[in-house]
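Retro notes (design track)

What went well: tokenization of the new backbones is finally stable.
What didn't: we kept losing track of which sequence belonged to which structure.
Fix going forward: every design gets posted as structure first, then sequence, in one message. First example under the new rule, 504 residues:
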């Protein structure tokens, strides 16, 4: 394999996250890796060349930024899928990490990733804002693929290693891995909400999912409410005893066994890297250009999302269109920029959403747009971090209107970019970020279109002193709780837990 090197990441600078890099296990001594991350995707993108060879390129994600120093300090390996069908690779080294590709067939991608992960669990865990589909063949594929990830992790981990499993695609891995390797210390972090039992119990395989997760020693969630929802699911669906955040499992002979802890560890971004990027003269200049390309309106509003039905994009655009209709905003003085990056395009609900959003944008632009003054500038692409930082700086009002969101890192990026202490964050109550950041943002209920319209107008007209007061508060939070601190705190708790090898 030919490595192209970290060309994507170098754009954001190579400064390591601050803070102490945790040593998670004793170095050396046995074969295998002391720290193993298991996530659906590898932190690299693969592309197949015309001669059939394969290139890879680093993909800049928050998770890899946070975990890279831990990996480099601890003989780390990362087990994940390449993102392409039937791509089989030997493990390889990149930037001090061992990358271990897991191969998925086209049918597994359709059943495990697009099906069970993104058409069953994703809508179910996001308050059923779209209807989940339950198919036994998808469940079978989910189990089989989870087993493959568990086998790959078991093969890489050194005796007594720490293994950190990530997200809803891999909820069976903790138990599968413990069955294979009871010597390991296993953590799991759920990046999305964990649903209330009243919704979770719809899932035909709810008990297996709970048992799968309980294979971990430590379960991390975005909010305290998600951890409580999980504990309630354990109480309702199993006979295990729970005491506060601790679940006590039962040994093979029926006696109390291993303990599992469930707690909140709200994830963050590499705030300092983003802050530094937004201070560069190039990004500041680009922000000015963006405003001028938009026709120099008084107020630029911005939405940045994966094109996902959980993000409330339609609700936001509807509210904006009504404000133009009512004459409370006008296109010569205000504009909305909506970046909707392509996502999960083979899943029907995402295809329908794209049609609805693009139809709505077209109608509003047709009705209210003028030469040189589009009502909405809609982009269906993703942009590199420099352009995102410039957009955040160009935006007077940031609109995050999710119907349900585990955290929402866009809200935190906006804050990290605004060292000028200007700009207003309008934030849905239904995000993990709202739990953490209130009272700095203007909080909204995206289902309440009239309330959201009033909040948008209030944000657009907010006095600069009030903007500064709110943004200072937001920045204190976002700049101190960065993603490196998140990883340190999760791994700190995981490695401090008393370790008891057991098959329970
Ligand atoms: O946690 C949600 C998540 O899986 C993120 O990790 C990821 O950035 C996003 O959804 C999109 O995921 P994917 O493109 O792998 O479906």
């Amino acid at each position: 394999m030919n490595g192209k090197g970290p060309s994507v990441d170098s754009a954001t600078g190579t400064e390591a996250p601050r803070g102490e890099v945790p040593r998670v296990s004793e170095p050396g001594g046995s074969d295998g890796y002391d720290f193993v991350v298991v996530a659906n995707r590898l932190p690299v993108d693969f592309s197949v060349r015309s001669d059939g060879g394969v290139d890879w390129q680093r993909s800049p994600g928050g998770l890899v930024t946070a975990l890279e120093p831990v990996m480099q300090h601890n003989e780390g390996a990362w087990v994940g899928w390449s993102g392409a069908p039937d791509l089989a690779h030997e493990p390889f080294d990149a930037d001090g990490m061992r990358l271990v590709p897991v191969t998925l067939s086209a049918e597994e991608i359709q059943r495990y990733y697009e099906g069970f992960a993104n058409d069953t669990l994703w809508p179910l865990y996001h308050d059923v804002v779209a209807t989940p589909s339950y198919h036994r063949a998808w469940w079978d594929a989910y189990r089989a693929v989870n087993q493959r990830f568990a086998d790959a992790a078991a093969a890489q981990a050194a005796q007594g290693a720490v293994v950190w499993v990530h997200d809803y695609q891999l909820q069976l891995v903790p138990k599968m891995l413990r069955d294979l390797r009871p010597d390991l210390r296993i953590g799991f972090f759920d990046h999305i909400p964990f649903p209330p039992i009243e919704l979770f119990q719809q899932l035909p395989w709810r008990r297996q999912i709970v048992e799968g997760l309980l294979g971990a020693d430590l379960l991390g969630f975005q909010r305290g409410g998600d951890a409580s929802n999980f504990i309630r699911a354990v109480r309702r669906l199993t006979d295990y005893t729970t005491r506060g955040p601790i679940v006590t499992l039962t040994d093979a002979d029926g006696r109390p066994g291993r303990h599992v802890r469930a707690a909140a560890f709200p994830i963050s971004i590499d705030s300092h890297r983003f802050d530094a990027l937004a201070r560069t003269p190039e990004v500041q200049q680009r922000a000015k250009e963006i405003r001028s390309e938009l026709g120099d309106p008084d107020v630029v509003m911005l939405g940045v999302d994966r094109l996902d039905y959980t993000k409330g994009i339609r609700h936001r655009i509807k509210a904006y269109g009504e404000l133009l209709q009512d004459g409370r905003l006008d296109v010569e003085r205000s504009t909305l920029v909506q970046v909707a990056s392509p996502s999960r395009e083979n899943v029907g609900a995402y295809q329908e959403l794209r049609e609805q959003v693009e139809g709505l944008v077209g109608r509003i632009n047709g009705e209210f747009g003028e030469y040189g003054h589009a009502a909405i500038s809609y982009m269906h692409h993703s942009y590199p971090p420099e352009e995102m930082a410039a957009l955040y700086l160009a935006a007077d009002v940031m609109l995050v209107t999710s119907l349900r969101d585990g955290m929402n890192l866009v809200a935190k990026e906006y804050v990290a970019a605004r060292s000028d202490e200007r700009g207003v964050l309008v934030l849905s109550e239904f995000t993990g970020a709202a739990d953490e950041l209130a009272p700095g943002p203007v909080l909204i209920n995206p289902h309440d279109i009239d309330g959201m319209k009033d909040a948008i107008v209030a944000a657009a007209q907010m006095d600069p002193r009030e903007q500064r007061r709110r943004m200072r508060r937001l920045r204190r939070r976002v700049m101190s709780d960065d993603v490196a601190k998140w990883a340190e705190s999760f791994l700190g708790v995981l490695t401090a837990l008393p370790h008891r090898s057991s098959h329970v």
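Added context from the reviewer: The pocket of 6-O-phosphono-beta-D-fructofuranose is lined by residues 40-41, 167, 191-192, 343-344 (CB under 6 Å).
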